Amino acid sequence: MATEYLEHKLSLLPARPGCYLMKDINSKIIYVGKAKNLKNRVRSYFKSSHEGKTERLVSEIRDFETIITSNDKEAFLLEITLIQKHQPYYNIKLKRGTGYPYIKITNERDPKLEITGQIKKDGAYYFGPYPNVWAASNTLNFLQKVYPLRRCQGHMGRPCLYYHMGQCLGACFQEVPEEKYNKQIEKIKKFLGGNVGEIKSQLETRMEKASDNLEFERAGELRDQIKYIETTVEKQKIISNDSTPRDIFNYYVEKGWISIQIFFIRQARLMKREKRVFACINSPEEELSTFILQFYNRRNQVMPKEILVPSNLDKDTLSEVLNVPFRTPQRGQKKDLMDMAADNSKLVLQEKFRLMELDNRQTYGAQKQIFEALGLPYGHVIESFDHSHIQGTNPVSAMVQFLDGRPEKSNYRKYKIKGEVEHQSGADEAANTREVVYRRYSRVLKEEGNLPDLILMDGGIIELRAVMDVLQNELGIHIPVAGMVKDNHHNTSHLIFGEEGEIVPLDRKSQGFYLLQRIQDEVHRFAITFQRKTRSKNALSSRLDGIQGVGPKTRNKLLKKFGSVKKMKDASVEELTALGISKTTAQTIKITLASTDFHKKYSKG
User: Fold this and answer.
1) Is pLDDT above 60 for 495?
2) For residue 425, what pLDDT is reported?
């Protein structure tokens, strides 16, 4: 049921295309959507019944704003921009990079083959994506043996090793005609396009000839190349009559969740599959459309020549935005692939449901208990801090983040305490707290990031008041703060809240209390681990400082490259000199580290 304030805003909505931004009680944007008709779409959130995550979203909405666009295409593009900028909790958010490897033929006078994960508009040819680096590496090695281009740096004045091995056309010592490169590149493009029968036949003929000439080693090499084609290229079943690079999207919806499958068809074969499952806030067609636009807006994403989607999507608008034809197959192999993607979507979602009930009780439900015990409206993000030091030395702090009861490790942060000179002791918990909290949230404000809904501080009333003072008086923000107090056995005892540190009633046998323990244990583990690494690195730095010829620059090079005494000891003199260190200094480092270990081992004998 909408409030009087929201009812008034709903009555003013225009019946035009655009985007809408839903906000919670703290004016944080929690959902971004698009609509052909803003009036109908936004009103539907408050005038219709919902379930699951949509129901939770509506319960948190306290305000909204709209942005009108001229047409659906502009709404599509604006929605993606707003999602990337605000990272709303209820929107599906894809990582910016795909992480998939591609094979690249460089665009230069003497082109070469290489594996890359970064796609650039540099005129080069890109083939992929490949399922993994192993698959791409094997294909690259095969092509370098059968269709060599350039493998050396070029213009060396002498033939390189690869030229003698038949894997380089000789740009190292001669000018290779462009026609010769172009001929090889056409063969490579044919092979990567799925036409492998011709090269397999050629290899078999050459293998038989080598065998007849008693060149058994060469025949063995050719046999291995044929085996590669059979085991890695021909192993995958041909599933299409043409080699057009295409991606296939289909979905399945149930109980307020949507499961999406993406098939990558390359070389007439299914090269890779992706799957995603997330809450379906809007209609399935709009969720899939938004997903597709985000999917191709990522870095290193080579567009296919054709995209197949279900018939209920707005294919014209998607084609206009991405400049790639969108089609819905009606029969044949492509229709079978669409059906297979839908069947896989259903299977994945049903597996998800089997795990969700227990998982939600232990995560979302547990976090909800903590907020209820504190008398706060439900919040999705909890951030927790802890400090670690050894008798006041090497002080560090760590922050962990939990999203709906689950650790978000990509958002963990580590801090070296900078203010220890001022307060003379790394064990000054209040000073450490003030420093790290100020550093964390001043940066969030500067970068216009999202603030957490609750801060849990490992400590008592002193740390609690220090956090509240920094937030309110120095940063001018209001975030609820609670302290996690431990007992004499260093186990989680209870929560305290407010200026006076009142004990919060939270059942010790509840899922909420178990989550509190997990958060406190996790932030402590993270801080201790970081402190040990810092101490180890400082100790290594001190040992290096005592070696003749090792100054600050050399020390930093060694630490960055090796990071530990063992790796430094195992390194050869050549590896050390490769860092720009003189051979004499490198030998001194090796001898000093070896003699130090010898002294440690036998000094007590």
Assistant:
1) yes
2) 43
Report which of 181, 318, 342 is spatially closest to residue 259, judged by C-alpha positions: 342
Q: Under DSSP, is residue 489 helix (H, G, I), strand (E, B) or coil?
A: coil
Reading the block at residue 119, the tokens are: 């796609």
Query: Which SS3 state, helix, strand or coil, does residue 408 take?
Result: coil
How many CA atoms lie within 13 Å of 488's alpha carbon, on the beta-carbon side?
0
234: CB partners within 8 A, 6+ apart:
196
- CA angle, corner 548, sides to 546 and 554, nearest 5? 85
Tokens representing 107? Answer: 């665009």
Helix (H) or strand (E) holding 587, with range, is helix 583-602
493 touches 486 (CB < 8 A): yes
The structure's pTM equals 0.57
Output the pLDDT for position 598: 38
- What backbone phi and psi angles, to 5 degrees, belong to 23? -125, 150
Neighbours of 372 (CB within 10 A): 13
* Distance from C-alpha of 465 to C-alpha of 499, rounded to nearest angstrom: 7
Q: How far out from the chain centre does Cα 502 lie?
A: 40
Cα(310)–Cα(314) distance, integer angstroms: 10
Assess contact for 387 and 457: CB atoms under 8 A: no
In sequence order, the β-bridge partners of residue 399 are 385, 413
Q: Name the residue with tokens 């007590």.
A: 604
CA distance 19 to 198: 53
What pLDDT score was predicted for residue 251?
A: 95
Q: Domains, the chain, ranges and CATH? A: 4-86 (3.40.1440.10), 102-233 (no CATH), 246-357 (3.30.420), 368-534 (3.30.420.340), 546-602 (1.10.150)
Helix or strand holding residue 135 (H, E): helix 133-146
What are the structure tokens assigned to 280, written together?
A: 């379906």
Give Cα 226 to chain centroid, integer Å.
37
Q: What is the pLDDT of residues 142-182, one digit of tens each?
A: 888 888 899 888 888 888 888 888 888 988 989 899 999 99
Cα–Cα distance, 402 to 454 (Å, whole number): 10
Taking only the tens place, the pLDDT of each residue in 518-532 is 898 888 888 888 767
Phi, psi of 389 (to 5 degrees): -160, 165
Distances (CA, A) of 204 to 141, 540, 569: 19, 58, 49
3-state SS assignment for residue 540: helix
For residues 411-434, one letter each, b for 16 or more C-beta atoms within 10 angstroms of the residue's C-beta and e for the rest, the string is ebbbbebebbeebeebbbbebbbb
* 393-403 and 306-308 beta bridge pairing: unpaired
- Please tell me what DSSP assigns to residue 279: E
Q: Measured between alpha carbons, how far is residue 266 from residues 235, 272, 465 in Å?
A: 14, 9, 60
Task: Report the pLDDT value the prediction gives residue 602, as an integer from 0 to 100.
Answer: 34
Asked whether the beta carbons of 524 and 557 are under 8 A apart, the reply is no
Instruction: Identify the helix (H) or strand (E) that includes residue 29.
Output: strand 29-35
Nearest to 148 by CA among 172, 167, 126: 167
> Would you say how long the chain is, in residues?
605
Tokens representing 252? 């399945």
391: phi > 0 → left, psi -120 to 50 → alpha, else beta; which? left
Calpha distance 457→440 (Å, rounded):
13
In the DSSP assignment, the letter for residue 533 is H
Whose structure tokens read 């279900």? 310
